[in-house]
Design brief:
heterodimer, A: 108 residues, mainly alpha, Helix Hairpins, elongated, B: 169 residues, Four Helix Bundle (Hemerythrin (Met), subunit A), 2 domains, 0% strand
């Protein structure tokens, strides 16, 4: 059981989590849950960044560039969620639904 | 330490599956929080203490609270039990399996992925914590992206206010 952790372990978890999020985006119909799955995909990509940062040791320390990038990704994700949820609320006001199959016309 | 990795990655994956399969949006949101906690634990296992904490604070704390607010505000009902078209399921499953197969193929090819966790030799002394190093990078090498992200947050705030207005005048 005590096998040493390799980079592949982390990248695999990240890839599978991304695939789960992708499945959610494709299968679900509720707009809010689709949006959550998008966030899940973003968070899965974050794991890849941290893993590469930690395995790329320079001068006895992790390469912090990846973690700085992750800082920016988290900020952008927060802004994106705020705007996206505002759009969903605006959509709900006009259509009274969050089901993507019922939102299939542009104006009427 | 590797059993902790398996526990927390299982937590992250089970939470992710919970988001996809649960009908109730509130339970989907809580599964999402579980998934983010597992991910944050993985970050901390990778010695990324700052981003692990940020992950919990921003994702589990702020973003999911926003999601729960909107779910309760909109009074989203559970999706009615209706047979989803089987073709959708097959298509989505095919795409996902293809993606996982792609990940496995790419990972099994490269030599870089077989590297084991390299030890950190510089862990003691002033200015070696990850908070210190990331802060230093943010305000020296990455000062311009920080400004851009600040403007982005301002734009997002204004955009949300405009979008949530009932009448645009």
């Amino acid at each position: 059981m005590e096998t040493a952790l390799t980079l592949n372990h982390f990248l695999f978890v990240s890839g599978v989590l991304f695939a789960i999020g992708l499945a959610g985006v494709l299968v679900r119909r509720n707009l809010i849950i689709i949006f959550m799955c998008l966030e899940l995909m973003l968070a899965a990509a974050n794991l890849t960044l941290v893993a590469f940062s930690r395995f790329n040791v320079q001068d006895g320390q992790p390469n912090y560039d990846g973690q700085v990038l992750l800082f920016f990704i988290i900020t952008v994700a927060a802004a994106e969620v705020a705007v996206g949820l505002a759009i969903i609320v605006a959509l709900f006001r006009t259509k009274e639904t969050t089901d993507v199959t019922k939102v299939n016309t542009m104006k009427y | 330490m590797s059993f902790l990795f398996y526990i927390f990655s299982a937590l992250a994956l089970v939470g992710g599956i919970g988001v996809v399969v649960s009908r109730n949006p509130v339970s989907a949101a809580f599964s999402m929080i579980v998934s983010f906690l597992g991910l944050a634990a993985l970050f901390i296992q990778l010695d990324a203490f700052l981003v692990g904490t940020l992950q919990i604070l921003v994702y589990a704390g702020a973003i999911m609270v926003l999601f729960l607010f909107i779910i309760m505000l909109l009074d989203v009902r559970e999706e009615e039990k209706r047979r989803r078209p089987i073709i959708n399921m097959i298509g989505a499953g095919g795409v996902v399996l293809a993606f996982v197969a792609l990940v496995i193929t790419v990972l099994s090819r490269g030599e870089i992925g077989k590297a084991t966790l390299p030890p950190l030799t510089v862990t003691e002394g002033p200015g070696t914590s990850d908070v210190h190093r990331i802060g230093e990078l943010l305000f020296s090498q990455y000062w311009f992206p920080v400004q851009v992200v600040g403007v982005l947050l301002l734009v997002a705030t204004v955009g949300v206010v405009v979008l949530s207005k009932k009448e645009l005048k």
